């Protein structure tokens, strides 16, 4: 793969994993071509896109001959290529494994529970969703993150890493429904993440689009908005 090849990111910024990639792109000032795929119009099921990504999901990154269809792998790839100082993807092996551990937590635990909740709203309508069940599952995830921050400023240590970027976009989505009232360390971390220019530029707009879309589909209103959270 030529180092001169410009990456192409297929995206819908209503997706939390997409927003984590967009945050990294902002932080590292990577020149990326963006191609929008409207998930709520079914564009991910188009023949050409399915040939590229049979999982019919976003994000998808094409970088030369390399095609990546998982946001966590995309984050790692872009950091390997463009984070020369190793700030976000540490060069130290044990620190890097800690970041990787948190990335797996996000994809297998936090995002899976968020996705289950959002999918239930899309399929059933909010009035028919067992909100108490989903609140219990997602509050458990909040508790895990509160523990991660007991001795660290960030999710995987004392500096901002890919783990924080991956987690914060999903957390901001969950927080629309279940505010972080009982988790002081997690609230502190979330407030700090919201101050990042990359968060403001790459997460807020997509989060607001998702809120509007889900409220329209589910015929309900989230109890919090990004504006209220920042206040």
In short:
With 231 residues, the chain is an alpha+beta fold.
Walk me through this protein's architecture.
- This protein is 58% helix and 6% strand.
- The protein is an alpha+beta fold and 231 residues long.
- The chain has two domains: 75 residues, 3-Layer(aba) Sandwich (Glutaredoxin), CATH 3.40.30; 138 residues, Glutathione S-transferase Yfyf (Class Pi), Chain A, domain 2 (Up-down Bundle), CATH 1.20.1050.10.
- It starts with 7 loop residues before the first strand and ends with a helix.
Summary keywords:
single chain, about 230 residues, alpha+beta, Glutaredoxin, Glutathione S-transferase Yfyf (Class Pi), Chain A, domain 2, 2 domains, four-stranded mixed beta sheet, 10 helices, globular, disordered C terminus
What topology does this entry show?
Elements lengths: L7 E4 L4 H13 L4 E4 L10 H6 L7 E4 L2 E3 L2 H12 L10 H32 L6 H18 L13 H16 L6 H11 L2 H6 L1 H15 L7 H5 L1
Parallel strand pairs: 1-2
Antiparallel strand pairs: 1-3, 3-4
GO molecular function, one term: glutathione transferase activity
Protein name: Glutathione transferase
InterPro entries: Glutathione-S-Trfase_C-like, Glutathione-S-Trfase_C_sf, Glutathione_S-Trfase, Glutathione_S-Trfase_N, GST_C, Thioredoxin-like_sf
Global Rg: 17 Å
- Find the count of extended strands (DSSP E, 2+ residues): 4
Strand order of the largest sheet: 2-1-3-4
- What kind of sheet is the major sheet? 4 strands, mixed
Global morphology: globular
Number of domain units:
2
The fraction of residues in strands falls at 5-15%
Summarize the helix and strand pattern as letters.
Answer: EHEHEEHHHHHHHH
Ranges where pLDDT stays below 50 over 5 or more residues in a row are 227-231
Number of helices: 10
Task: Output mean pLDDT.
Answer: 95
